[in-house]
Write a structure and sequence with these properties.
Elements lengths: L1 H11 L6 H13 L5 H9 L20 E2 L5 E2 L2 H12 L8 E4 L5 H6 L6 E5 L2 H13 L5 E5 L12 E6 L8 H5 L1 E11 L4 E9 L2 E10 L10
Parallel strand pairs: 3-4, 3-6, 4-5, 6-7
Antiparallel strand pairs: 1-2, 7-8, 8-9
Helix pairs in contact: 2-3
Length: 225
């Protein structure tokens, strides 16, 4: 019973990791322009402090990227919210969703509040193990994760209605575009030096690309580590 209570308290957080602090983060996201209440609710349900390094837990609800192991980062809450908002815009749901670059599992946990089918690919085995541990702690066992090359997507589970990529490339890999359903949508940062969010929508005639705000992400790399 004591262990259960301790785990419950860890998820709820105290002080700078409390539900009240998380609620203030949601209010800041609303003030910054995030309008989709489904997205705001999803972020409000996920305890971000569980996913960051313990030494950074007191900063978990700041609107900033934070360092993870192996030189990776957890994206700032605004960017997570904005990318999911772009995926959802004008659609009733995300449907079957693939996340490329699952990292510590935070974004997958947010996506799992919005759709029942979430797949994730992560190229770094140690980071993938961390994501599995974090998602298991929250009992989000329906998120399916794979160690693999994100540039190749997840062809064995394709097609997807939504794909979200948490790393930047000069252009959207064709393998990912091919794994969208007709009517599906992908969002990812593109660009070498200056990066921008790109939304790709698959139509019966091909792919339509649109650019949005400037961002800064780690590079999308081939292979596994």
């Amino acid at each position: 019973m004591a262990r259960t209570m301790n785990a419950h308290m860890a998820f709820r957080g105290v002080g700078m990791t409390s539900e009240r602090t998380r609620a203030r983060m949601i209010e800041r996201l609303r003030e910054q322009g995030i309008k989709n209440e489904q997205v705001l609710m999803a972020l409000g349900l996920v305890p971000r402090h569980i996913f960051v390094e313990p030494a950074m837990a007191h900063r978990a609800y700041e609107d900033t990227a934070l360092p993870l192991i192996l030189g990776q980062t957890i994206s700032q809450p605004y960017i997570v919210a904005r990318m999911i908002e772009l995926l959802l815009e004008g659609r009733a749901s995300l449907g079957k969703t693939l996340e490329v670059g699952a990292g510590c599992g935070y974004q997958a946990a947010v996506l799992a509040q919005l759709t029942r089918e979430v797949y994730g690919v992560e190229r770094l085995a140690a980071l993938l193990a961390r994501a599995r541990e974090n998602l298991k702690a929250l009992r989000l066992t329906r998120v399916r994760l794979k160690h693999g090359d994100g540039m190749m997507g997840l062809p064995e589970a394709a097609p997807f209605e939504s794909i979200i990529v948490a790393a930047a490339a000069a252009a959207v890999p064709q393998a990912l575009k091919d794994q969208l359903t007709v009517g599906g949508r992908l969002v990812m940062p593109v660009g070498g030096g200056a990066q921008m969010l790109m939304v790709v929508e698959r139509t019966a005639q091909g792919w339509k690309e649109s650019l949005f705000e400037s961002v800064r992400f780690v590079p999308l790399l081939p292979g596994v580590g």
